[in-house]
Amino acid sequence: QLQLVESGGGLVQPGGSLGLSCAASGLTLNEYDIGWFRQAPGKKREGVSRVSSSGGSTNYADSVKGRFTISRDNAKNKVYLLMNSLKPEDTATYYCAAGVHYSDTYDWSSTYEYDYWGQGTQVTVSS
């Protein structure tokens, strides 16, 4: 089974940057769309960004557009999320998720569209 492991979380000051990685094992990642989600305590898990299997299509939540960048390196079986200009409201546990899709016509921000999930990495934005 495909296993996803997030890394790169930590404590960062507002305005700072942080890069997250999602590493896959078991199956190659190049057949999967990858989404990044986040969940703060007591809140609903929300979609942050998504990249298609080939890397040719990306999506971002309005709250992170212009600040976050998703990318992937299928040769390394990894997906990345670069987070710039971080805000306290970005504080959450961040998860990567994988799902098989053959078009872009689906709700990428829905957790139901993904079959495999990592365990999450904590991102805290605070001074």
Q: Would you kindly provide a written description of the structure presented here, covering whatever features stand out?
A:
With 127 residues, this protein is mostly beta strands. Helices cover 0% and strands 46% of the residues. It has strands at residues 3-7, 10-12, 18-25, 33-39, 46-51, 58-60, 68-73, 78-83, 92-99, 116-117, 121-125. Strands 2, 4, 5, 6, 9, 10 and 11 form a seven-stranded mixed β-sheet that branches. The radius of gyration is 13 Å and the shape is globular. 31% of the residues are buried.
Q: Please work out how many helical segments DSSP would assign.
A: 0
* Poorly predicted sequence stretches spanning 5 or more consecutive residues: none
pLDDT average, as an integer? 95
* Shape, per Cα inertia axes: globular
Largest sheet: 7 strands, mixed
Secondary structure elements and their pairing?
Blueprint: E1 3-7, E2 10-12, E3 18-25, E4 33-39, E5 46-51, E6 58-60, E7 68-73, E8 78-83, E9 92-99, E10 116-117, E11 121-125
Parallel strand pairs: 2-11
Antiparallel strand pairs: 1-3, 3-8, 4-5, 4-9, 5-6, 7-8, 9-10, 9-11
Short account of what is shown:
The protein has 127 residues and is mainly β.
List keywords for this structure.
46% strand, four-stranded antiparallel beta sheet, 127 residues, mainly beta, single chain, 0% helix
